[in-house]
Amino acid sequence: METLHTMQKEQPEKFLAVRFKINTKVERELWEIQNYGSYEGPDPLTRQLLETHLQNWANDPESFWKYPMEPFWGTSATGELVAFYMNARSGDC
User: Fold this and answer.
1) What is the mean pLDDT of residues 22-49?
2) pLDDT digit string (tens) for 43-82?
3) How many Å separate Cα 65 from the centre of its chain?
4) Which domain holds residue 46?
């Protein structure tokens, strides 16, 4: 991660097509502190998910951790990280 962070800082042109930015822990914590006061709660999709499953989770809390859950769109976090690394290494971004 440190290598990718350094590459992203030193060669930003390679990361133009990348949707995410790698931050150090300190950078993330500073961002969280700055944005803490503006948090308005979960987004509508998350609220809907919570409301839809509330009764089931209340009756059986362990079911929260069982799969399969409703599929989420997009790529897994691991997949995003692999794609990020592959793009950075190839220089095709």
Assistant:
1) 87
2) 888 888 889 889 988 998 888 777 655 555 555 667 677 7
3) 19
4) 2-90
How many domains is the chain partitioned into structurally? 1
pTM of the full predicted structure? 0.36
> What pLDDT does 10 receive?
92
Residues 6+ apart with CB under 8 A from 42: 50
- Three-class HEC string of the chain: CHHHHHHHHHCHHHHCCCCCCCCCHHHHHHHHHHHHHHCCCCCHHHHHHHHHHHHHHHHCHHHHHCCCCCCCCCCCHHHHHHHHHHHHHHCCC
CB–CB of 56/63 below 8 Å? Answer: yes
59: which 2 tokens?
A: 């009756």
